[in-house]
Amino acid sequence: MPSKDYANTRYSPLDQITVDNVKDLKAAWTFSTGALRGHEGQPLVVGNMMYVESAFPNHLYAIDLNNVGKIAWQYTPTQNPAAAPVACCDLVNRGPAYADGRIVEDALDGHVIALDAKTGKVLWNANNADPALGQTLTSAPLIIHNKVIVGVSGGEYGVLGHVTAYDLSTGKRLWRAYSAGPDSQILLDSSFKGPRNAGVDTWKIANGWKFGGGTTWGWYSYDPNLNLFYYGTGNPGTWNPTQRPGDNKWSMTIFARNPDTGKAVWAYQMTPHDGWDYDGVNECILADMDVNGTKTPVLVHFDRNGFAYVLDRRNGKLIAAHKFDPSVNWATGVNMQTGRPDVVPAMMTRQGYNTKNICPASIGSKDEQPAAYDAKSGLFLVPTNHWCEDYQPFAVKYKAGFPFVGALVRMYNGPGGYGGRFIAFNALTGETAWAINDTFPDWGGALATAGGLAFYGTMTGWLRAVDIKTGKVLWQFKCPSGIIGNVISYMHDNKQYVAVYSGVGGWAGIGIAAGLKDPTAGLGAVGAGAALPQYTNLGGTLMVFSL
């Protein structure tokens, strides 16, 4: 699966590579993807076959691991050229999924495509989004039972978010659940724990919910015992909070839904009336933890807003919420009774005023780059961002297919002068066991292994192996381009391998990816990353390592 397992742990039970021998790790083989925009996501290994999906135009390759010098098959979808200009934060893709002899890929222009895993033959092609309306598709699918679950991107174009299920065998659309609007459109279960009609009533301007954002481009997880899947929704439209009074539900929300019906049984909104673009799409990691002496099924979510949430995944009850970057200053904490953040009034943005030194920046203390969970230590290995910003909203009118942002943003390094941290974090206590500061945001996803190692990549191109217990960097390798992909490990012919994409870009690297120079371009990220070309260049290479 794209996240290794339904629980999104990104934990590998492989232990051939250890803290003692990782110093002997060498490059085993490499592969060019044929694309040069940001490479998020990860390769997928099924048996003796590895599946690699590039950034746009979303080349999909099958590589036989018994003969890595030969491409078993290749497929490049024919796409609507209107998709690339409306993709907000680089032309990224977060990887394919596999089930029942089928590989399923999401294409940027909104198509969901199922192919025969052995031959690459297209079995079906479903249209999930319309670029003419600003809709794109960058997420990885999650396959549950016989259903392919996919989301949609385009929050900066006023796209109303939704999740959709397609039949794995035929591609037929089975259900679609929206992030805002009437309860019937959101698909609230009769047992739903929360206010009714909030998807309309909490938008205090007429029909504001219709272009209300809440897009669903992050990672999904699933609990087979509860038969619930979990995901987060993105920012409300516009970025100008003055234009949309109210809580703006259900943007910035974690939903728990039944995958067979799409119906939501609970929802938890992290950032009501968002004024900073703190999308809630980051992954939900499922774990069983000791809470006050009782083993409890929990969901752990490191949100863009800088707080790490622990929820009871059965009912959405808040168990803990801690800052995972001490620089967070837009709120002092989270009220454990109401679940709402205690917002610092001076940090709430408003139209016509430039609020300065907000931490974190809109890019968040962590964005889509996924964390890993090591159950042995109880630690989460979290790649984070450490940027702050100035944020000035302005009035904007909605027009389908055009940007619907309404804010001028300038980002810069946070306190201490660095741009990112890789941390080991206890989500229940809020304690950081150790941290490694990096020049730029750590935009690639982490891997934890049974060998006692955490792997992650930097935007300057270093792939690192770290001792989970101590945080000591035991090995590193300079890849040809910055890393924003997620590290995986697999076994082939009784040998353990580690693999990652090298290809800088994404929102944090949008300046170098798209050739932008204005410091406020790229939704404010260009200025903060202006020095990145001094360290790396564009690329698209799969890097594979072994002892």
Structure explained in plain terms:
- The chain contains 4 helices and 39 strands.
- With 547 residues, the protein is mostly beta strands.
- The chain has a single domain (11-546), classed as Methanol Dehydrogenase, Chain A (8 Propeller).
- Strands 1-33-34-35-36 form a 5-stranded mixed sheet, with no helix packed on it. A 5-stranded mixed sheet has the order 15-19-18-17-16.
- A hairpin with a 4-residue loop joins β34 (453-457) and β35 (462-467).
- It is globular, with a radius of gyration of 21 Å.
- The mean pLDDT is 97.
Order of strands, widest sheet: 1-33-34-35-36
CATH superfamily: Quinoprotein alcohol dehydrogenase-like superfamily
Counting DSSP E segments of at least 2 residues, the number of strands comes to: 39
Largest sheet: 5 strands, mixed
Keywords:
single chain; 4 helices; five-stranded mixed sheet; 547 residues
Question: What is this entry, summarized?
Answer:
This protein is mainly β. It has four helices and 39 strands.
List the helices and strands and how they pair.
Elements: E1 11-12, E2 26-32, E3 44-46, E4 49-53, E5 60-64, E6 71-75, H1 83-86, E7 97-99, E8 102-106, E9 111-116, E10 122-127, E11 142-144, E12 147-150, E13 162-167, E14 173-178, H2 183-186, E15 188-193, H3 198-201, E16 221-223, E17 228-232, E18 253-257, E19 264-269, E20 284-291, E21 294-302, E22 307-312, E23 318-323, E24 331-334, E25 341-343, E26 355-358, E27 372-374, E28 379-385, E29 387-393, E30 407-413, E31 420-426, E32 431-438, E33 447-449, E34 453-457, E35 462-467, E36 473-478, E37 488-492, E38 495-502, H4 510-514, E39 541-546
Parallel strand pairs: 1-33, 15-19
Antiparallel strand pairs: 2-39, 3-4, 4-5, 5-6, 7-8, 8-9, 9-10, 11-12, 12-13, 13-14, 16-17, 17-18, 18-19, 20-21, 21-22, 22-23, 24-25, 26-29, 27-28, 28-31, 29-30, 31-32, 33-34, 34-35, 35-36, 37-38, 38-39
